[in-house]
Amino acid sequence: MQNQLIWQLKKFDELSTKEVYEILRLRSEVFVVEQACVFLDMDNLDFDSHHLQGRVDGNLVAYVRILPPGLAYAEPSIGRVITSPAHRKVGAGIELMEKAVEKTISLYGKVPIMIGAQLYLKKFYEKFGFRKCSDVYMEDGIEHIKMIREV
């Protein structure tokens, strides 16, 4: 990674108004505009989640939310995995997932972690120990699979 990513993990109530705006803007930029997917991103799961932000020179370039067990799945889960288009292919996504797994374990212990992954990213998530555990399903017009990282 050419520029050092600075990581912050915060609960929703700890986020500043500016941080919430930056997170929602980045999620909209990629999930709605780039992927041409009309869906309601604000699904009420943010309030009970932790938000991992990766910043370069103060700018948000990588993000995930970490959901507690029982919110989306029985297991803790990682979702809304995103890197800004300008920071792809330089290792930001890899560092993001490494940090996300590390932070999930620090929050919830060494337990299985679930993700709902876009199918085309299956090989990417396998690098972090996730394996497919469902059939392909459609979510917001995009093929997805559930993947789990066992202990």
CATH topology of the domain at 6-109: Aminopeptidase
Structural class: alpha+beta
Shape annotation = globular
Q: What CATH architecture of the domain at 6-109 do you see?
A: 3-Layer(aba) Sandwich
Q: Kindly report how far apart the N and C termini lie.
A: 28 Å
Provide the CATH superfamily of the domain at 6-109. Answer: Gcn5-related N-acetyltransferase (GNAT)
Q: If helices are DSSP runs of H or I spanning 4 or more residues, what is the number of helices?
A: 3
Please summarize the sheet with the most strands. Answer: 4 strands, antiparallel
Taken as a percent bin, the fraction of beta residues is 25-35%
Helices and strands, in order, run as: EHEEEHEHEEE
What are the low-pLDDT stretches, counting only 5+ consecutive residues below 50? none
Characterize the structure shown:
- The chain has a domain of 104 residues: Gcn5-related N-acetyltransferase (GNAT) (Aminopeptidase).
- The strands form two sheets. Strands 1-2-3-4 form a four-stranded antiparallel beta sheet, with helices on both faces. Strands 5, 6, 7 and 8 form a four-stranded antiparallel beta sheet that branches.
- The mean pLDDT is 94.
- The chain contains three helices and eight strands; from the N terminus they run E-H-E-E-E-H-E-H-E-E-E.
- By secondary structure, it is α+β, with helices and mostly antiparallel strands.
- Helices cover 26% and strands 32% of the residues.
- It is globular.
